Known about the structure:
Chains A, B: InterPro entries: CinA (IPR050101), FLAD1_M (IPR056596), MoaB/Mog-like_dom_sf (IPR036425), MoaB/Mog_dom (IPR001453). Chains A, B: This is Molybdenum cofactor synthesis domain-containing protein. Chains A, B: It holds the Pfam family FLAD1_M. Chains A, B: It comes from Sphingomonas jejuensis. The structure is a homodimer. By secondary structure, chain A is α/β, with parallel strands linked by helices. Chain A folds into two domains: 158 residues, MoaB/Mog-like domain (Molybdenum Cofactor Biosythetic Enzyme, Chain A); 74 residues, ACT domain (Alpha-Beta Plaits, 2-Layer Sandwich), CATH 3.30.70. Chain A is built from nine helices and twelve strands. In chain A, the strands form three sheets. A six-stranded mixed β-sheet of chain A has the order 2-1-3-8-7-6, sandwiched between helices. The first copy, chain A, has a four-stranded antiparallel β-sheet with strand order 10-11-9-12, with helices on one face. In chain A, strands 4-5 form a two-stranded antiparallel ribbon. In chain A, helix 2 runs parallel beside helix 7, helix 3 crosses helix 4 and helix 8 runs antiparallel to helix 9. The longest helix of chain A has 17 residues. Chain A starts with 6 loop residues before the first strand and ends with a strand. In chain A, 49% of the residues are buried. The interface between A and B is large, with 68 and 68 residues. Strand 2 of chain A pairs antiparallel with strand 2 of chain B, so a sheet runs across the interface.
Amino acid sequence: MDSSRIWTAALIVIGDEILSGRTADKNVQQIGLWLNLQGIRLAEVRVVPDVTAVIVEAVQALSARNDYLFTTGGIGPTHDDITVDAIAEALGVPVVVHPDARAILERYYETRGGLTDARLRMARVPEGATLIENRMSGAPGIRHGRIHILAGVPHITAMMLEALSGTLEGGAPLLSRTVGAWVAESEVAELLQHTEKAHPGCQIGSYPFFRDGRVGANFVIRSVDADRLDACAGDLTAALEALGITVAADAI
Amino acid sequence: MDSSRIWTAALIVIGDEILSGRTADKNVQQIGLWLNLQGIRLAEVRVVPDVTAVIVEAVQALSARNDYLFTTGGIGPTHDDITVDAIAEALGVPVVVHPDARAILERYYETRGGLTDARLRMARVPEGATLIENRMSGAPGIRHGRIHILAGVPHITAMMLEALSGTLEGGAPLLSRTVGAWVAESEVAELLQHTEKAHPGCQIGSYPFFRDGRVGANFVIRSVDADRLDACAGDLTAALEALGITVAADAI
């Protein structure tokens, strides 16, 4: 495995309810954290409405420039669930009923009123797809090459991610250390920039906060190299302390 | 005002910390809700890293096809705050120090250690911009034509939205009614589709849940026309009750 290669993924969050503000998305954070554990970096997210043409454009643009593509939402049994059709259109393949998905749904609905036409919609996949297990609600997720079609309900999304864990090739995970400090970030902006420059392979992000009447900031250092990360965190801590600033070895 | 015209906005959430999963975004929901009150629909969101070229591409693509563009994040005093430079590049204008922003920061930092070079970065704007007030932390937001550059920290973003309230031309706000029902959405998928078709100008979204060992769904009806909305909600409720389903006049 070439651990210096950076593997990237994009995520398309599909749903009018996210854009209207009715529902707070939780999948960006959940998938961002999970991908990092797989050694894959979440490089871009789009939130799009339940409109086929917009989904098709996003699928084509993002899959062209990333190693993997994930979608969440729009795979249920109702008329507003158009994700599978849109992705099939983007791929230029027909939609077919997957026999294993049909069998899973038949078993699941055997004691729940039977497999209706609406429920059978959840067995439809872009031709050539395989299934992603979902122990929660019967209906599986869908994998088509580098594209992963997941549920939108966060705890069902989590089940599908669990089923995918360890199955995607990635690189070294991006590691991070956080140095918290009781200082206004604007007072140490130059120090941060110099420290980052002195430590190639490390990026420092600055996240200010205001709490209990005091200002502070968490400085998040990221690198794929643990030794470089430690060296950078050590130097940053020493430099802040030399200025008489109170520093914590973790986020404040 | 032409209330039949649909006004749209796009949002670009800028920041490595959102993509890595370290920070949960709250601005998509906050801005989606706020825009709707202004009669503007949030049509698309992108979450992008702190990379100039990616921000430039997103600004150009999204501002071309929406009435308004908003960005959050990346306007602080540190080296990873590159939003203003990226937007100026996208617009093809230079970055200049705005005299009013400079005066605001001078006053704010008068008792807080003075206006350093790093802090002066927060007075930089794309040439031609005006300021958006921020009562919280001194540093203002920035408006350049149809583009609004806001802070990333949610409560500061909220202050800037408050300052903008009522200043943007929009259309009729999208109204919604929610009908909650103790039923598996897959059992009423056809009914939902027929009800939507029978009520032009209304869209019905179906949001299933599993709670206390029971399945249910909230059906959200959206329209810019209050009368149509009420008629659709009434018909949907009657049709569900005719099937013996327990229905609530709001979200369950």
